[in-house]
Amino acid sequence: MTFSVKTSISFLLILASIESLAQEFQSYEQAVPQTEVKFKMIAIPAGSYLMGSSYSEPGREDDEGPQRNVTVDAFWMEEHEVTFAEWDAFFKNMDVPQTKAIALDAVSRPTAQYIDLTWGMGRDDNQPSNSMSQAAAIMYCKWLYNKTGIFFRLPTEAEWEYACRAGSKTAYSFGDDASVLKSYAYNKDNSASKFHKVRQLKPNAWGLYDMLGNLSEWTLDQYNPKAYDALADGVQNPLTPPGTRYPRVVRGGSYQTDAAACRCANRISSLADWNKRDPQIPKSRWWLTDGMTIGFRVVRPKTAPSKDEIEKFYAQYLK
Predict the structure, then answer these.
(1) Average pLDDT in the 241-258 region?
(2) What is the pLDDT of residue 97?
(3) Read out DSSP for 101-164?
(4) Domain spans of the chain?
(5) Which fold would CATH assign to domain 27-317?
(6) Mean of pLDDT values over 37-45
(7) Most buried among 19, 71, 204, 295, by the most CB within 10 A?
(8) Burial class of 123 by CB neighbour count within 10 A (0 to 12, 13 to 18, 19+)
(9) pLDDT band at 5 (very low <50, low <70, confident <90, very high)
(10) Other CB atoms within 10 A of residue 24 CB
């Protein structure tokens, strides 16, 4: 086969274009306009993995199986849990029109926290933000979208576990030895019963900090103890869509969780009891009076949905 100069130039341009697209998908620092907030987004490549835990894994719960081969598309994930510096840029300077898409507490913006929901653990800029409901976390994502024009959301349960494992097949991203956990996660054994600043311990192989321990993290999925039974091997981007307010899936374990539960495959069901001491009527959809161990981090899909799809997504979760 022979190539003309014109054909060769076209071929080189195509290669350059492909190389440029490949280079675009890399970790980067995200700035939020009109604020001082910046945070790092880690590029998570598309791939497949075995979701759930084997029957022989110590600490395994029945809702962690049967294991399924799952494929997820590429996405970016925040390298650490959303901090108070990030959250407060939203909460303390929020424009009222941006909150009218959801009716909460009979007002168009979140109510003030009526008690110290950090329970004395600190509210430093580098502390992970805690005690937020799933709706509050998604409202923060929508605010980010309005500020940046980039679609942010919570991870699906499948995305979260894939990112947490970082290519591993073991109970923890670093292996099966629970005694090593203290180097990667603030848990019941090393936390002194409080959460800690982000990025203090070792990250996993993909550069993500505190995927296990510190704060448990919201995902998008409705909790179903038999969810994996309904999944076919090779399923792509699985998601159990929202139904009732409770239960939803939380992942990762927290500073109060023992090592056996701070595993990649462990699933946590949210509970109405996380808001049992809320004095408001109706109870707040923003704050969790007894959810001091709950936080979140954001993701950005590599392939962005259309504007209509984005609006439908937020409407679905913020109704």
Answers:
(1) 97
(2) 47
(3) TS-BTTBSSPPPPSS-TTTTS---TTSBP-SB-HHHHHHHHHHHHHHHS---BPPPHHHHHHHH
(4) 27-317
(5) paralog of FGE (formylglycine-generating enzyme) (3.90.1580)
(6) 98
(7) 295
(8) middle
(9) very low
(10) 10
